[in-house]
Amino acid sequence: MRVTILGAGTAIPAQHYSPAGVHVRAGGEHLLFDAGPGTLQRLHTIGVTRLDLDRIFLTHYHLDHCLDLTSILFALRIPNPARKKPLTIYGPKGLKRLYRQLNVAFHGWLVPRTYRLTFKELGEATLRMSRYTIRTKSMNHSTPALGYRLKAKGKIVAYSGDTDVCQEIIELGRGADLLILECSMPDERKTQGHLTPSECGHIAAQARCRHLVLTHFYPVCAGYEIRRRVRRKFAGRLTLAKDFLSLTV
User: What integer pLDDT is reported at residue 157 of this predicted model?
Assistant: First the structure.
């Protein structure tokens, strides 16, 4: 699998830290996890076009994780070249309502013309594709949210989206080759529904993941010793992400 962090930041602008988005090349498909503002342009930057995407997985419906869904669907209406292959979008309960409301707001311009579009609302589930599987767990956030665990060719990538500490994210990351956790605030600025460096270290240690990648940094994290706080709990491989970090799993 090839994993690229398209956005390592939040809704607040910061150089090298754009809103959430993760592209994964797995099982011969292009998978997108979250679609914060500007995701479509950053996909283009890494050489993935709107026509390449096979599936989109949304963790929740805060703007910094889903706003570019409108950009993607609008761009897919452009007929030259026309998209032919189907697109499936997954997310927690409320996904279909979100699409209807967005489509009304944008006067019907999100309706596909040349391809089949499917929405699938998920609880805790296991999706079995031809060459990979995806498990979901409910995360501890301020709105219904999912984390995803992708397994392909014996390798595992887990992605939290936004969450506070919970047993579900530990289970999702159990033995993962790559665990991508949000790390929104430093320990001194703990915010409910989000993780701090020490909490990320605790989760990674409990999950016994092989490689921990931290993302979703608010600008306030600058200047804090994020790595040192994580190391108090977790001794494994650690990467602090910036936009376009790319890893092979």
Answer: 98
Three-class DSSP labels, the chain: CEEEEEECCCCCCCCCCCCCEEEEEECCEEEEECCCCCHHHHHHHCCCCCCCCCEEECCCCCHHHHCCHHHHHHHCCCCCCCCCCCEEEEECCCHHHHHHHHHHHCCCCCCCCCCCEEEEECCCCEEECCCCEEEEEECECCCCCEEEEEEECCEEEEECCCCECCHHHHHHCCCCCEEEEECCCCHHHCCCCCCCHHHHHHHHHHHCCCEEEEECCCHHHCCCCHHHHHHCCCCCEEEECCCCEEEEC
Would you state the structure tokens that stand for residue 241, as one six-digit string?
Answer: 């992400």
Find where tokens 């949210």 sit. 145
What's the pLDDT tens digit per position in 138-155?
999 999 999 999 999 999
Q: Please name the residues in contact with 218: beta carbons below 8 A apart, sequence gap of 6 or more.
A: 9, 10, 12, 184, 185
Give the closest residue to 85 by CA, choosing from 118, 36, 47, 130.
118
| Residue 223 pLDDT exceeds 90 | no
pTM, full prediction: 0.97
Cβ density class 217-244: b for 16+ within 10 Å, e for less? bbebbeebebeebbeebbebebbbbbbb
All domains of the chain, ordered by start, with CATH? 2-248 (3.60.15.10)
Question: Which position has the token pair 């927690």?
Answer: 92
Confidence of residue 104 (pLDDT cuts 50, 70, 90): very high
